[in-house]
Specification:
heterotrimer; A alpha/beta; B alpha/beta; C alpha+beta; A: alpha/beta; 6-stranded parallel β-sheet; two-stranded antiparallel sheet; C: 4-stranded antiparallel β-sheet; 6 helices; 24 strands; about 20% helix
Chain lengths: ~350, ~325, ~375
């Protein structure tokens, strides 16, 4: 995984052991309590993920992109960010959004075909400045550049984190954004979730470079690879990059290497194109088990705590599902409500039409 | 060879035929190789024609379009696939500024005989950006052809026509009816003419011009209206640009009434173009003002509310009655 | 999708028991069709199909306990839905896929060319373009429609000059409402009126008055401002019956004797009473008579029925003292007559002359 061009960071290996003992600095930064919170949150979003797929399979949710295998990336990022930072996510980023205050219910709403799912508050309950989930590929990169430019103009000590998949790095938007972030020295952290698959296209035929991180070199951006299955690495390196950004020391590109353990979405079937053996190996590296192993070795975790957590996680998920299933549908006219600040008269007329030909499900 | 095929399979059949018979044909796009395309339109092609002619590209639509322009300039017949019409926009610059203008810029020295395929339209409960109907954006660009099939036979014939056309063609496939019905397609390599519309049902009282998945609801509406004594003539526009003006005029000259039905948003839509044509040419033949029934000028609602946006049979029946009973 | 595995049904449970299959091997299913119902520790849940396709095999029987993630259904190969988002409906019924390239012209039956105003006028005149003469290249304007309309009715003319001004002034706009004006008179007869054949006498006198003043024996059409004066006098006779008001038409009254008219009225009255009156005998009146005095009442403002322009009402006869031609006070029998006419189409003078003539002719029948 290492490449001479870019550094590689991993703290916790697949067996749940420290590659090198934590420095004093790291131990201060990552308390046992925080590690447990990482673990609890990763389990919670994994339980949620399973439930969301079940809801889709039973006709209660629309197409849903699983984040199975991306828990460390999302949770590490979410905890590394400050509430005042701005997050610009893509569609597989439920975990980080969850840490930033976007409830499971909101995520269900979004994938359940309801615009209200993108209307959310931040962790402190104030309206969030985070962007909504971005479905078009890589466009969020340029928005991240824009937000970071604004923060710089306004001289605010806040950072922007933008997230993208490995496939998205092939788009012009990605390279254009890197270039701009580099030359403008922006407070931007670009996190690539390299899960090895862009739908059916494997990383090997997506890009000829050894790492995706090294794309930052040409833009004059600090870049590094990390083990995306190691929440400690994600947290520490994201925290480092975000703080660097806040201090006005420029952008960072972080490639988090992980694996998409699920299908692209619930409408995809990866068995058509993905070797089963590869998946088996990937499961040995997955992020949740290794953290549990470490916590257990440190006697911070045991089966009793695990059982409690699973019950509590399921309760949280069940409550979200119940809220989702019981919510009232938006009226037919909702499609007009946020089109403009003031609806032009001609379109107001169309709003009347939709009400007159209203059909209920 | 005659086969019962869906619209989607007819696309695949046409691609197979042309790849087999024209070695200059090349297919490129995201997930089109191993995966056979996200909708399986290109299934079986890579196995048969190899990775050099069936190319899985990196995830980059601008790249796909630009590469297509380059290939076409070299005399290849590239067929590019975009996974959804909503993701064509990064490629817009290449399509508009290069594909559409190559012949003009080089005074015919270089051309762009390419096809850009993309599924379009709503009604499949997809997430946002997967339900666009923006054919009008492309119809506005000089130098392009825009083609939309609405049945297996027409998909087969029109796609062959598009591939063999010497100029760039945007070929938008109505994904809502990709698999909803089958018909008998003869795999004989015969292309249908572009720039023509198709009469799906002859009628006396009103001409309905429509295209894409709306054709299905229009035909159903015509059946209901027939029982009420209103005889609808249904024209499938098929080629959105250039419009088959003569056929539309012929039909309206006969019926004296016009309703255009399209799923795309109303304002500056293709319906306005057809109504302008008919109003300018047949103003004095019209028995009532021509009307359009189009999508609202809104963003397609997320799927829980998308049925409020889509045009169903009943809405078309009502719109036809409104044209027929015009009190003025 | 080749295999459909039992999904986690959302309850965090590891297994479920098959209650009942809703599908069988070989069956075609659409997205969201129920495949089977299963019972978990919490509930019985229907499991819908995530794809459309043909079921190759259902795995397990009712009562079997299945682990989450186990294969439940194997689908036939080749039914791969192929999408990364959404639900692809897959009915796959065969349809006819016939079409004509281009459009088919009408067989000489093209819509005629008219200005929108002309077409609207045609519609208000209750005409279709079929009524117009075939002139393939003609471009029809409003005036052409009026000309054609005039030609369609014998004696129909478009009003001109002061007559047109009157019509337009009276209407105030292009409204179709008539402008009623009324005129009453007491027709005095020194002597006793012969009540036999009274209604035939009224009809007879009306016919003669119409010949004198044809403006009242006419149809008027406000949209086109056209008037059609009739040569024959067809009088609608208001007949009250227990079923309501009927106005059968006695045609060409001027050519009929009192005896003829009497016989016809008797026949009509019988038919109306029996509700056997032929519908065509209720059409085509050029003017109307209402002999309401047979029931009672002296004066009235009878209502004109468009396109007719006049209606005459006769009230109940009465006797009063009056001067005869020699200036002597004698008993006078009075026949009260009330005329309503459409002032768009008739002048007051025409109406007055009509009524005067009517009175004179009526009195002569008693002489």
């Amino acid at each position: 995984m290492t490449d001479s061009l870019v550094p590689f960071f991993r703290y916790l290996n697949a067996q749940g052991q420290l590659e090198t003992p934590f420095t004093k600095e790291i131990t201060t930064a990552i308390t046992p309590e925080l590690l447990k919170r990482f673990y609890q949150t990763m389990v919670r979003v994994r339980v949620y993920d399973k439930q969301a797929i079940a809801l889709q399979r039973t006709g209660k949710l629309g197409t849903y992109p699983s984040h199975l295998g991306a828990e460390a990336i999302g949770i590490g990022t979410g905890f590394a960010m400050q509430a005042s930072d701005v997050y610009v996510p893509y569609y597989r980023d439920m975990p980080a959004l969850y840490v930033r205050g976007v409830s499971m219910f909101k995520n269900l709403q979004y994938w359940g075909g309801d615009e209200r799912g993108s209307d959310f508050n931040n962790i402190s309950g104030a309206p969030s400045e985070d962007f909504p989930i971005c479905v078009p590929i890589a466009t969020q990169m340029t928005h991240g550049v824009g937000v970071a430019t604004a923060l710089k103009i306004k001289k605010e000590r806040r950072a922007v984190a933008v997230s993208i998949g490995d496939g998205g790095t092939s788009k012009g938007d990605f390279l254009e954004s890197l270039n701009c972030a580099g030359v403008w020295h922006l407070p931007l952290v670009i996190l690539v979730n390299n899960n090895q698959w862009a739908i059916s296209v494997p990383r090997s035929i997506q890009c000829g470079a050894k790492t995706l991180a090294q794309k930052g070199i040409g833009a004059g951006i600090d870049c590094e690879q990390i083990d995306g299955n190691d929440v400690v690495a994600v947290y520490l390196r994201m925290q480092h990059a975000l703080e660097k950004a806040r201090m006005g020391k420029g952008p960072t590109l972080i490639e988090a290497v992980s694996y998409r353990l699920g299908d692209h979405t619930t409408a995809d079937d990866a068995r058509r194109y993905r070797p089963e053996t590869e998946l088996e190996v990937a499961w040995e590296n997955e992020p949740v088990a290794r953290l549990r192993a470490y916590l257990e070795a440190q006697e911070l975790w045991d089966q009793g705590k695990e059982d409690e957590l699973l019950v509590s996680a399921q309760q949280e998920v069940d409550a979200a599902v119940q809220t989702y299933m019981q919510q009232s549908q938006q009226p037919a006219s909702a499609m007009f409500d946020f089109l403009y600040q003031d609806l032009p008269p001609s379109i107001l007329n169309q709003r009347q039409q939709v009400l007159s030909r209203k059909k209920d499900l | 060879m005659m086969t019962e095929t869906t619209l989607l399979e007819a696309v695949n059949l046409a691609l197979h035929y042309e790849m087999e018979n024209d070695p200059n044909t090349v297919i490129l796009g995201e997930d089109i190789g191993t995966n056979g395309g996200v909708f399986r339109a290109t299934v079986g092609l890579r196995e048969k024609f190899g990775v050099k002619r069936v190319i899985d590209t990196p995830l980059a639509e601008a790249l796909i379009a630009g590469v297509t322009v380059g290939m076409a300039a070299q005399g290849l017949r590239p067929i590019a696939e975009f996974q959804f019409q909503g993701f064509v926009f990064p490629a817009m610059e290449h399509i508009m500024c290069h594909a559409a203008r190559m012949r003009n810029r080089t005074r015919g020295r270089l051309t762009c005989p390419a096809v850009f395929r993309a599924p379009f339209g709503g009604g499949i409960h997809a997430p946002e950006h997967h339900s666009e109907s923006v054919e009008a954006l492309f119809a506005h660009i000089p130098g392009l052809r825009v083609v939309i099939p609405s049945s297996p036979k027409r998909a087969y014939g029109l796609l062959l026509g598009a591939i063999r056309n010497p100029d760039p063609v945007l070929f938008f496939e109505p994904k809502r009816i990709y698999r909803t019905f089958k018909s008998t397609v003869t795999d004989d390599g015969k292309a249908l003419p572009l720039d023509r519309c198709f009469t799906l049902k002859e009628g006396r009282d009103i001409t309905l011009v429509t295209w894409g998945a709306c054709v299905i609801e229009a035909l159903q509406a015509a059946q209901i209206l027939e029982e009420r004594g209103i005889s609808c003539e249904i024209l499938d526009l098929a080629t959105i640009k250039p419009i088959d003006e003569e056929s539309i005029l012929t039909s309206v000259r006969k019926t004296g009434r016009l309703l255009v039905v399209h799923e795309a948003c109303q304002t500056a839509g293709v319906g306005a173009e057809i109504i302008t044509l008919v109003t300018q040419q047949l103003f004095y033949n019209l028995k009532s003002p021509p009307q359009r029934l189009a999508g609202f000028d809104t963003v397609m609602p997320y799927y829980k509310n998308e049925h409020y946006y889509l045009l169903d049979t009943e809405t078309i029946v009502t719109a036809v009655c409104r044209v027929m009973e015009d009190p003025r | 999708m080749k295999h459909f595995r039992l999904p986690d049904l959302g309850e965090g449970l590891a297994e479920a028991e098959i209650v009942e299959w809703a599908v069988k091997d070989g069956q075609k299913v659409a997205v969201n069709d129920v495949l089977l119902s299963v019972e978990t520790a919490k509930a019985v849940v229907d499991v819908p199909s995530p794809v459309a396709g043909v079921i190759k095999a259902c795995v397990g029987n009712a009562g079997d306990v299945i682990a989450i993630g186990s294969v439940l259904v194997e689908f036939e190969e080749g039914e791969d839905q192929g999408s990364v988002v959404g639900q692809m409906q897959s009915q796959q019924q065969a349809i006819s896929d016939d079409f004509i390239i281009g459009a088919v012209a009408g067989s000489g039956q093209e819509t005629i060319r008219m200005t929108p105003q002309a077409r609207a006028l045609l519609k208000r005149l209750n005409l279709t373009s079929d009524a117009l003469p075939q002139e393939p290249d003609k471009m029809w304007a409003e005036q052409d429609v009026i000309a054609a309309y005039v030609a369609l009715g014998e004696g129909r003319e478009q009003l001109k000059g002061s007559r047109k001004n009157m019509a337009q002034w009276m209407s105030n706009d292009a409204s179709r409402a008539i402008v009623p004006a009324s005129l009453s008179d007491d027709i005095e007869y020194a002597g006793t009126v012969d009540l036999s054949e009274f209604t035939p006498r009224l009809l007879h006198a009306m016919a003669l008055a119409c010949q004198e003043e044809p403006a009242l024996n006419a149809w008027f059409e406000g949209e086109s401002c056209t008037r059609q004066q009739h040569k024959t006098v067809n009088i609608g006779l208001a007949v009250d019956s227990e079923h309501g008001l009927y106005v059968p038409v006695i045609r060409d009254v001027g050519q009929k004797t009192l005896t003829d008219l009497h016989a016809e009225i008797t026949e009509i009255a019988t038919k109306v009473r029996k509700r056997q009156i032929e519908p065509e005998r209720l059409e085509g009146a050029t003017i109307t008579l209402s002999n309401f005095g047979a029931i009672g009442g002296r004066y009235a403002t009878p209502v004109v029925t468009p396109p007719q322009v006049a209606i005459l009402g006769i009230g109940k006869l009465f006797t009063r003292a009056g001067l005869n031609t020699e200036g002597k006070l004698v008993p006078m029998q009075v026949i009260p007559a009330s005329l309503t006419f459409d002032h768009r189409a008739c002048t007051g003078g025409e109406a007055t002359r009509f009524l005067t003539t009517f009175a004179k002719q009526l009195l002569q029948t008693f002489a």
